[in-house]
Amino acid sequence: MIIEPAFDPIGNAISNYYFQKDNTPITVTSTVVEDEQMPPEYFFRNFHEMPMLERLALKKCEGKILDIGAGAGCHSIYLQKNNKEVTALEISKLCCKVMKDIGIRNVVNNDILSFSKQKFDTILLLMNGIGIAGNIDGLGKLLTHLKDLLYNNGKIFLDSSDLMYLYEQEDGSILFDINAQNYYGEIEYLLTYKKTVGLPFSWLFADHVILSEIAEQCGFRTKIIEYGPHYDYLAELTIL
């Protein structure tokens, strides 16, 4: 699926910030927290402004690299400037236009499940990139597809978060419905930017245990590289 500008709050925000210096924020509405404001300048942060887990992942990239959900290209442009061969994959037409103007050489406007016929040494899914799976079932489908894009000795680097903390009570106990139909990290979102309203979508946050279980089912070994300061982590997946 390719996102057209009329339904692309993030793409419009990124494009307007890059071409017009308009930092009007994106409104993020979800089923778990109150509305949040995301300034588009965040997508343009340099290496030293990135969270520790992202910096660590970028330092570990080797060979031919695929940056999935590249956004404004902050990870791809860093890698390219450090003489790495990187392909920036992004479903937003507007984001792809920005990345090409920035100077990223290999920009592909496509969704990951429709992207094939190439193999990579490193695959990046940063900024909770596995969220594109939508749910637990989708994570299995995503990892199975990524395995076909990876050389036998290749690596996937991804970061995600355990949202269990959202259900933590004042006394430290955890309160949520164990009989709920969906995994607690499956969140529904709606994004708005000025008059542009995106289509509702599901986004997945996976704790490291369930990630490891599903990755193993898909033929991957999971190694937790580092834990972040807010229930987040960086994982490395390699083919079994």
Count the E strands: 12
Poorly predicted spans = none
Annotation field: number of helices = 6
CATH superfamily: Vaccinia Virus protein VP39
Q: Outline the biggest β-sheet.
A: 7 strands, mixed
Question: How are the secondary structure elements laid out?
Answer:
Blueprint: H1 9-20, E1 26-30, E2 36-38, H2 52-59, E3 64-68, H3 74-81, E4 85-90, H4 93-102, E5 107-109, E6 120-125, H5 136-149, E7 150-161, E8 186-193, E9 196-197, E10 201-204, H6 208-217, E11 220-227, E12 232-239
Parallel strand pairs: 3-4, 3-6, 4-5, 6-7
Antiparallel strand pairs: 1-2, 1-8, 7-12, 8-9, 8-10, 11-12
Q: Could you characterize what this model shows?
A:
With 240 residues, the protein is α/β, with parallel strands linked by helices. A hairpin with a 4-residue loop joins β11 (220-227) and β12. The protein starts with 8 loop residues before the first helix and ends with a strand. α1 runs parallel beside α4 (93-102) and α5 (136-149) crosses α6. It has helices at 9-20, 52-59, 74-81, 93-102, 136-149, 208-217, and strands at residues 26-30, 36-38, 64-68, 85-90, 107-109, 120-125, 150-161, 186-193, 196-197, 201-204, 220-227, 232-239. It has one domain: Rossmann fold. The strands form 2 sheets. A 7-stranded mixed beta sheet has the order 5-4-3-6-7-12-11, sandwiched between helices. Strands 1, 2, 8, 9 and 10 form a 5-stranded antiparallel beta sheet that branches. The radius of gyration is 18 Å and the shape is globular.
